[in-house]
Amino acid sequence: MNTEAAERANDLRASLFAVAAVGALFALVLPTFIGTGTRLSLLVGALLAVGNLWLIARTVRGFLYPTGARSPWLGVALLKLGTLFLLVAFLVRGGHAQMMPLMIGYGALPIGIVVSQLRSSKVARGEG
Known about the structure:
Elements: H1 3-29, H2 31-34, H3 39-64, H4 73-93, H5 99-106, H6 108-125
């Protein structure tokens, strides 16, 4: 594995970890403010965020660095968004999750990415 590929893999791991950590923090702290029955919905939203980030990273890698004549990630990219909407609809309509806490948990995705990028920029400057 070359240095650039190893660096990309480390960046992805750091982003996945940061999104998961922010989601766990949301699930631990926010039920105090928005209601005690929201913890599971917050966790499900955070798990959706981590899974979505991983799938987006795999899809982008498949498009940028194809291994064969036809990338299997094209089909994954086409189905991902629809599957995400159907899964959220199933969870909410089935009463397995509440919509607002699920959306807040999913908010761990952009916040976790920002946190990981701020951390990696500090490391690059020699501050961390």
